[in-house]
Structure formats: C-alpha cells, structure tokens
Amino acid sequence: MQAEFVTFEGLDGSGKSTHMRRATEWLQAAGVAPQVTREPGGTAIGRAIRDVFLDPRWGEVDGRVETLLIFASRRQLLAEVIEPALERGQHVLCDRFTDSTLVYQGAGRGVDREVILQVDKLATGGRRPDRTLLFDLPPELAQSRGQSLKRASRPRGIDRLDSENLEFYRRVREAYLELAREESDRFILIDSSGEIADTERQVRAALADLVPESP
Ligand SMILES: Nc1ncnc2c1ncn2[C@@H]1O[C@H](COP(=O)(O)OP(=O)(O)OP(=O)(O)O)[C@@H](O)[C@H]1O
Ligand SMILES: [Mg+2]
C-alpha cells in the first residue's frame, strides 16, 4: 500500500501521546516501522519554535502570531520529515497537525478561519493527512488526566496553554467534532473516555490495514 500520513488529534490530555507510543510499539512488533513525529517540534527549528510557543513569559499572545509560529514549524516538519518519509514508503504517525490550528487558534482563540487557511496554503499547500484519529472525551476528563500527568512530570508548574479555561476546551472539542463531521472520510472518532485498553482496541482497529498481514 501507499505510505500513509496519519495524525493523532484531540484535547490536551486526551491520550494522543500515550496511544502514539503504544501504536508505534504494536506496529513495530508487526514489522512496520513508522516515522513518528509531533507538533510543534519534530525538527531542530521546530523545537525552538515549540519552546517559544509554550513559554508563559509572553502573557497574552495574539492568535495570528500563534498561527504564524505554528505554521513555520509545520512547514519545516513537512519538508524535512513527513514528505521524505512518505517518499521512502514509510508510514508517518504525527501528534497534531493543521486540524489543531483550526480548532485551537480558530475556534478557541477566534482567529478567522480564512486567515488560517491562507497561511496553511502558503505553508503546506493545504496538505491534509490521509487519516486522522480524533481522541474524543469530555474536556473535564481530559483536563484532570492531563494535569495529573503534568504535576507528576513537571512539578514546577504549568505551561501557558494549560491555564486556559474549560470554556475554551469546550469550544475546541466542538470544533474538532465539527471537522470530523465535515471530513468523515478522513476522520476516525476514537472514544477516549474509558480505560486505556479500550481506547487501544479502537486505535488498533483504526490502523489495522497498515499491517501487511491483516485482511
Ligand atoms: N483511555 C485512555 N487513553 C489514554 N490515556 C488515558 C486513558 N485513560 C487514562 N489515561 C491517562 O491520561 C493521560 C493522557 O495523557 P497523554 O499525554 O497521552 O495525552 P495527550 O493527548 O498527549 O496530551 P497533550 O496534548 O497534553 O500532550 C495519561 O496519563 C494516561 O495514562
Ligand atoms: Mg501529548
């Protein structure tokens, strides 16, 4: 099969990283070695942009500034990591992509959708993943999972985006679900509200055809 560009999307704490890690191990055990990457970041300059992006020192950052920063990182990731992997015939698993900007900067922060799409055209030519797993769960649950995780790993504090309120995350979730309705061929909805094993079963079903032996 053609190498596929697969993205994992969802709220902070929805389980993207957990299931990227598990899916990668599962695919590797089945003899498939995906290129794994994440946004913002995934390249040297992308990691520098990520550090700027998440730094709480800037206070209120204009939504268009966030959009430009994120698409600068995305352009580099596409050119340096994603496209070369696909050309080699390697599947790509990417933690977040343009859908995150549409819902966080767009629905969340109120940046005009047309502005985002213009920058997207410039940065990626409007490239969309081949399939997108959307980890869906109530924002209250995502927040409590995410925060307990961050307290454990970074006891000194929370980054800028963690301090957004619940109302923001409700808008982001609704916007994700709306995108999934608009592009129902690309999106696979994963119910991430239950046990990890239950979510993992859904992820494996969503990726089963990437394993050559499977029917
Ligand atoms: N069904 C589930 N799927 C995934 N994670 C779960 C589930 N139930 C509980 N968890 C816990 O929730 C947390 C999910 O965090 P994870 O870092 O995977 O989310 P994330 O979507 O990558 O968040 P972020 O956007 O902040 O990076 C983990 O601590 C995990 O153990
Ligand atoms: Mg993560």
Secondary structure blueprint with pairings:
Layout: E1 5-10, H1 16-29, E2 35-38, H2 44-54, H3 63-88, E3 92-95, H4 98-108, H5 113-124, E4 131-136, H6 139-153, H7 166-182, E5 187-191, H8 196-207
Parallel strand pairs: 1-3, 1-4, 2-3, 4-5
This protein binds adenosine-5'-triphosphate and magnesium ion.
Adenosine-5'-triphosphate binds at residues 10, 12-19, 145-146, 149, 192, 194-196, 199.
Description:
The protein is α/β, with parallel strands linked by helices and 215 residues long. It has one domain: P-loop containing nucleotide triphosphate hydrolases (Rossmann fold), CATH 3.40.50. It is built from 8 helices and 5 strands. The protein has helices at residues 16-29, 44-54, 63-88, 98-108, 113-124, 139-153, 166-182, 196-207, and strands at residues 5-10, 35-38, 92-95, 131-136, 187-191. The chain has a 5-stranded parallel β-sheet with strand order 2-3-1-4-5, sandwiched between helices. The longest helix is centred in the middle third of the chain and has 26 residues, at 63-88. The radius of gyration is 17 Å and the shape is globular. The two termini are 13 Å apart. Residues 10, 12-19, 145-146, 149, 192, 194-196, 199 line the site of adenosine-5'-triphosphate (ATP).
Features:
215 residues, alpha/beta, Rossmann fold, five-stranded parallel sheet, 8 helices, 5 strands, 55% helix, 12% strand, globular, binds adenosine-5'-triphosphate, binds magnesium ion
